[in-house]
Write a structure and sequence with these properties.
Length: 401
Amino acid sequence: MIFVLIQVSFGCAQRHLRRHRTALAGLKVPAVNGMMGRPPYLTARPELERDAAQLAGNDGMAGDALSDLLKTIRLTGATFFDIEAQDPWAIRSPAPSSILPRILPGADHLISYHVVTDGRCFARIIGKEAIPVEAGEVVVFTNSDPHIMSSTPDLGADPPTADVLEIAAAGQQPFPINFVKDGALSARLVCGYLACHALPFNPLLEALPPVIKAGDARGDGGWLGQFIRLAVAEVAEKRAGSETVLTKLSELMFVDVLRRYVESLPPQQAGWLAGLRDPHLSKALALMHDHPAHNWTVEALAKESALSRTVLAERFNKIVGMPPMHYLAKWRMQIASELLGAGGSNVASIAAQIGYESEAAFSRAFKKMIGVPPSAWRVGVRAAAGSESKDASETEGGPSV
């Protein structure tokens, strides 16, 4: 297997996501007097914002909470493997700790995926029930739990050794893994990884099940089907730039899998993704994501979301799992943590970008919520498990100054 460091832009995925208006998006609202602009990390690609606005039309989306989150957590990768197999066969995933440094140094979360392009196989988390996967389908392990891909449900395998990974790392991508001897091919897979930051706040990961299977074995005419066809072509032809093409395709594939998962959620489902599907809550979420420094109150969010203050507060807490001001406080600190890690801004500037008029007030709030001061986070210090404050809420009207 092979892993390559690739820092990718999520712009391609953002354009595709905004081209198709779905429940994952918030709606554009007029600017509010006194509202501070979006942090620079969200406006680094103005040409993409223009493209998205043109594609969306008059009712286009200024705030897309999913795209904002994916950019902020630095979804990065992926590395591809081309697996050809003949029964019986099995391959086990390597440990995330051996992969993360090769994809996104400093990242703390890994997502694994396997696209079956020919034949069929089984996917299973170690100790769990196997899931059949056929050509045209993708299986995503959202926590990269130890898992096995195999020709039958009960076959075992050992993870690849360090020397195998090192040898693979020196090869050309996608790295071929061939289990075919003399007989006919029984399965072919394109596999890869996506790395991101789970800390300090990643509501997407908290809302996902450990395994998601998507696609249509009978022939998918949607984006996922196009991804599979394009991936097969890139793997076969090995043209210049194919690694980059496959990497960007993987981002689009992951977004489409998320979209399909959201659309399949039952009406009573709770969680962040269910909040994106609700037209009123998605509006409130988009407002907080689009203008995190604004002096939001529940009443102001409710007015923009076409709900009463009481209904918004109750619905947000029931579906998203926390009060709106609690969510806003956590989202502001997620932005701050990313800006601190990027190293391009001082603490006072970061405090201002997320709505704090005082560096001292921001530092106190950051330490209370995250468990370490901003200066420590910037150099890589993370709080011990359980040391973060459970009371992350801010008073209505914005951060204290």
